[in-house]
């Protein structure tokens, strides 16, 4: 086994830059940031060339939709970063900060209820980039899911967004069909005939929008798009299922403000070393939700960030 020459202090510094030590060697895996998993063809070529020039030629992909280039010797780190920069790529994604935003392909998916690429890119710019200077009690993961299919597990992130389409139902147009086409279209069994009229069970309905346009008598011809927000999820050795805020947000600006308020709350009231799920458990979900639905945290933003 090769003799290690990189000090622990230097390893820690490099980890903060996105370079993770390959155990037993002086080589590192460079964590390269993508914006919600998207890279251009030119960036892809740059990554492949960099892996061959400065690493061992292997690329791996993380659960946060970043790319890791393996086997980079310590002395190649600066040259590797310079090579990536020509295509606008950078390393990072570690530490007690907002982590790279993950997103499903809801923009192009047939089930997508929101432009997940555009939304996650906006979150990336406003929070991953905009909050780089502000340390949090622990890492903070954000995921954007285009629909209730939950492909990127938004409810297992510190904060997750799930696209919604709330059906607009006009019960006066329901004919009480014995074979209800709305019920057939629903994957969750939310529509039920009650006294000859179809009703949608709100406790079962996931707002997936699959029912829209399926009634033969036009009782559901449209639906309102929105954002469902989960807080306090995490995976790993300790798993917490995030809990949804009781409000479905129909304004993107309001949903983005809730994300910012959650980050500010975590920085302000979280204890060092605890995940957001633990902060919520300690403070109480109802207390946290009340703060996220008010404007006090945004009004205190300058004070909180100056700590």
UniProtKB/TrEMBL annotation:
Keywords of the record, alphabetical order, are:
4Fe-4S, Iron, Iron-sulfur, Metal-binding
Name all 4Fe-4S ferredoxin-type domain ranges: 165-196, 198-225
Which cellular component terms (GO) are annotated to the entry?
sulfite reductase complex (NADPH)
A GO molecular function for this record?
sulfite reductase (ferredoxin) activity
Quote the InterPro entries the UniProt record gives.
Answer: 4Fe4S_Fe-S-bd, NiRdtase/SiRdtase_haem-b_fer, Nit/Sulf_reduc_fer-like_dom_sf, NO2/SO3_Rdtase_4Fe4S_dom, NO2/SO3_Rdtase_4Fe4S_prot, NO2/SO3_Rdtase_4Fe4S_sf
The domain of life for this entry's organism is Bacteria
A single GO BP term for this record reads:
sulfate assimilation
* Name by which UniProt lists this protein: 4Fe-4S binding protein
